[in-house]
Amino acid sequence: MRTSPIRNRLIIAGAALLFLGGGVAWWRISRQVRQAFDTPTRNLQALQFAPLAMPSMQVEHWGGGEVSALGLSPDGLITAGAFGVFDGNGDITAGLPTLHVSALALWRGRAVVGLAAGGLFLRRDKAWEEARTGFGTLHVRDLRETPGGELLIGAREGLFRAAWGANVVERLDGTPVRSIAAGSGGTLFAGGEQGLKRLGGMQALAVPTTDPWVDGIATLGKELVVLTPKGLARGPLEGPLLPVSGAEDASAFAVLGAQVFAVSEGRLLRFEASGRPSEELLSSKVIKVFASEGVLFADTESGLFQRMSSGWTLARPRPASLPPGPCHVNALARQGERLVVGLFNGGLAIGATSGNTWMWSAVPGSVAWGVNALLNAGGTLHVASLRGFARLEGGMLRPIEPLDAGAAFSLASTREGVVVGFGQGVLLPGSRLLSAFHGLPGNQALALVQGPEESDPLFVGTPSGLGAISGSRVAWRTLAGDGKLPHPWVTALAYHGADLYVGTYGGGIVRRITSHSGPAGPGSFEAFPETAGLKVNTGCLVEAGGRLYMGTDGRGLWRLSADRSHFAPVRVPLSSSHVTAILAGKDALFVGTDEGLVRLPLSLPEEIN
Known about the structure:
4-stranded antiparallel sheet; mainly beta; 57 strands
């Protein structure tokens, strides 16, 4: 029997559809198989611990005295923070590449720490070892040891797990983590900027919270307690979590037994099973609370206290540190034998030596906040801050607002007096304000310097370029379109010998070459290729001990070679790789960072470059 052409076409079309459907199914199955094989490869990376050499020099350093984390080891109490790492014998920070420790745990009885600047390190045989993984540098926020002896790592890059002695590390989740808790049956909880997750088996389920930003997690039997910007919340392990009455202002908490302890506005509150709070009385303002090995600790402005049956007892004095609060050093100056520190997110702190120890105190008042520059001229300390221009007189700050020019960013001493760089221009002695209207490359004066010669102009660095002021007028300027500077954002200026060095944020360093035919003009600029792309922070170009030092944003401290041919990094331990202030002392170089302050000897050997 003959088949019709229409039927033939239908048969062919059906066969094609069957073939296509089978192909799609086969593709899906193949993809699932590939994913099953590929997932372990993506989530497992090599792990090794590389011993770190002890540094050739021990450096004095001061950060915040607040305890970030602690642990009770068989050998005693270990504390960590912006001050470094301390055990019962003292400071054991030496060997770590940066000095601010953001997280600590005990892994099989050994200290393991995460640095605020990045990196994970294990303490073994009285030395530090660096954990190197295929995931790159981890910015660790929390560390926990599981009941099975595994290490949980909560980092900006996600949640990780490593077994003791293993040569691999596993990424459990890629969401940023700020805190970790382990529940029963291998269940894990991880919270961060993007909410709270419950991880078990092959699943990661979201747990509803009062706020998506989670700073702390702890399990309490079959309940979960979390800390968010809205305070404490509590509820079943699966959620939802509800606010804890009386803990709306909580800034830290810990769980011990059936009790929850929370820090609220400097007080330590204890929440019983009934939910009613009562206050634990301490002699000083409480900053944070911890529970370790069944022992409760409270960090206060007077030191770390331990809760005993007889009451609260000092467990460890506050280490030598900057005054309580953030320790982002943004400016430095000497005033006699004292060292003055200007804070990026605060006011002034003054350090003075007492024997071999530096003691620090905060300058009272709110006249200066967000300090950008300090200058000791004629025995008077001048202060440029986001609140304007001020002077430190008799231990008190006095505002100087001749033009109500707003935020001040830079200072320079000239033969005529002190020059102040404002956001609206440059205020010269005699109250004349020059701005972009008068020919400067921009209004915001981030850097100021006058040369040693009588005929040298006052140089002004702005985000738009470099300008020069002679007398009371703008002599010349160079802008982005001129092609003279590697980057128009000028952040630092310094003379070294007869040469002007210009630091830029993103273009490194150049040296000004004066033109013989027009010495009063801009001349030309000679680049240092090794500094290309470096971000020189504001004011971080300083001559000290006959050498020129440069502070960078994220690349540490650099120094000009003795023959002035090139810059090279100075490989010394710093509080952070973000250098934000440099000052030459009588016999030392003080280096401020966004995580604290370091004192280095001026006689740094060449081999540390």
